[in-house]
Amino acid sequence: MDLLYRKLADELAGLIASGGFQAGDRMPGVRQQAQQHQLSIATVISAYRQLEDWGLLEVRNRSGFYVKPRPLAQIQAPRVHVTTMRPAPVSGQDMVLQLVKAANDPNIVQLGAAVPASEFLPTRAIEQALTKVARQQRVRSANYEFSPGAPELRRQISRRLAEARCAIHPDELIITNGCQEALTLALRAVTQPGDVVAIESPTFYGLLQVIESLGLEALEIPATPQTGMSLEALELALSRWPVKACVVTPNFSNPLGCSMPDANKQRLVSMLKARGVVLIEDDIYSDLGFSQTRPSLLKALDENVILCSSISKSLSPGLRVGWIAGGIHQPRIEYLKYVLNLATATVPQLAVAELLESGQYERHLRRVRSDYAQAVSRMTKALIETFPEGTKISQPQGGFVIWLELPGNIDSFDLAKQALAAGISIAPGPIFSASKKYSSFVRLSCACEWGSRVERALATLAGLIQGYSPR
Ligand SMILES: Cc1ncc(COP(=O)(O)O)c(C=O)c1O
Fold it and tell me: DSSP state, 171?
């Protein structure tokens, strides 16, 4: 019974985190829930009690269990200032390296980089797959697996995409060193230095680094924490500026954790197609939604969308396996991949193919999705209890990062330096913006090794925020 009640509690925690059940909602009755899940009443009651312990539910006057209101304010959608939307080169992104270096230091509490702690990674299954591949395909493992990459891996990726209602033939896929390389190849294939690229604001800092390194100009389009990139703002921007490409993470974007509704996806694709703007889709988080429904892909709406993705968040960042499907841009991308580094390492490609084919990837996903949902609600609860009043917080629908707006006049870059000196890494808001907006925002990773060390770190951070003075 233990496992069953915990499974149900995890699933419901995920639904609460993703907004499926909202503050003040009455939870389905115990009897109804038991019937629906084919569980005993005692199991459902234990699950509800667990959610109560996690601070997610409360019992009201014997009328049932209700989702607890969150005392923290939600982050509001940013106001759209058309006049401030103008393309600009990206600079100063090298400061991100400090953050990334801290991610490998075991003495630092890791709340900064979006790198899952080992308890979220199927390390044993990965070890077994690597060993099996290296033993059974010894000669091939020692050789190049030239672009487009291992056919068995491309077949498995194509199969998974078909399950998400996106038909891509294995020959249309190229294996890359993670999603970062896929994004680099996509932008290199379709732009020249000086071209304008529309991006979400806030956005993943790695994308800003690619834009900086290719000498492109970033045009920041405000994204709302509920539905992602504002299409009204994008439309205005397209009418004013010669945009060459647009990069979007439509499912569980980083750092907002939100998804675009299907109608917006359709509108985005049509809007860009009509203007001949290349659409690049970063799909790295779409396997990590908290609800059971798989989100749709932009690529399914237009075969010439350039799809970039990887298993870095869902399986292992260390294997460095990603992919790209570039439609009409495919030949150019394949050539650029070859020029850049000849091939992606053979053994990780074959090991990922093995993990996909054996069903271990899918089994791991089922577990890790609810682990992440739970990690997000655990962190949210701790922040509500620890951080100063006035802190605003995102409600991600997937992935494992939280975006916070801090009260008062805080320079989060300076705060990050103070936190690092106290042995805690956090990601300051300005690194998610080409024009260094979001000065009082920070991103926290919830996929950390939870325990008293993290709880102490949150208390230290809260103290730094409360008594903040610039150093
Ligand atoms: C939105 C997004 N895209 C791409 C990447 C890079 O992924 P990879 O490690 O597969 O290169 C990340 C990593 O944090 C990310 O968050």
Answer: G
pLDDT at 11: 83
To test ligand 1's pocket by mutation, which of 313, 320, 432 has the most ligand atoms within 8 angstroms of CB? 313
DSSP code per residue over 175-192: EESHHHHHHHHHHHHH--
Is the CB of residue 317 below 6 angstroms from any atom belonging to ligand 1? yes
> DSSP alpha helices (H): ranges in 387-444?
412-421
Angle at 102 between CA 97 and CA 108, to 5 degrees: 160
**Burial track 14-30 (b if 16+ CB lie within 10 A, e otherwise):** bbbbbebbeeeeebbeb
CA distance 424 to 191: 38
Cβ–ligand 1 distance for 99 under 6 Å, the answer no
CB of residue 396 inside a 6 A radius of ligand 1: no
Residue 81 has pLDDT above 70, yes or no: no
Ligand 1 contact via 178 beta carbon (within 6 Å)? yes
Which residues lie closer than 8 Å to 338 by C-beta, 6 or more apart? 146, 147
Query: Residue 70: which pLDDT band, with cuts at 50, 70 and 90?
Result: low
Checking if the pLDDT of 79 tops 50, the result is no
Domains along the chain with CATH numbers: 2-67 (1.10.10.10), 73-120+363-466 (3.90.1150.10), 123-360 (3.40.640.10)
Q: Would you state the structure tokens that stand for residue 254, as one six-digit string?
A: 């980083």
What confidence tens digit (pLDDT) does each residue in 188-210 have? 999 999 999 999 999 999 999 99
Closest CA to 168 of 302, 312, 311, 279: 302
Angstrom distance (rounded) from CA 168 to CA 12 = 34
Task: Determine the pLDDT at residue 279.
Answer: 98
Q: How far is CA 428 from CA 209, 368, 469, 471, in A?
A: 16, 26, 16, 15
What tens digit of pLDDT does each residue of 95-151 get? 777 777 777 788 999 999 999 999 999 999 999 999 999 999 999 999 999 999 999
Residue 112, CB-side half-sphere exposure with 13 Å CA sphere: 29
Return the minimum-mean-pLDDT range out of 31-45, 83-97, 246-260.
83-97
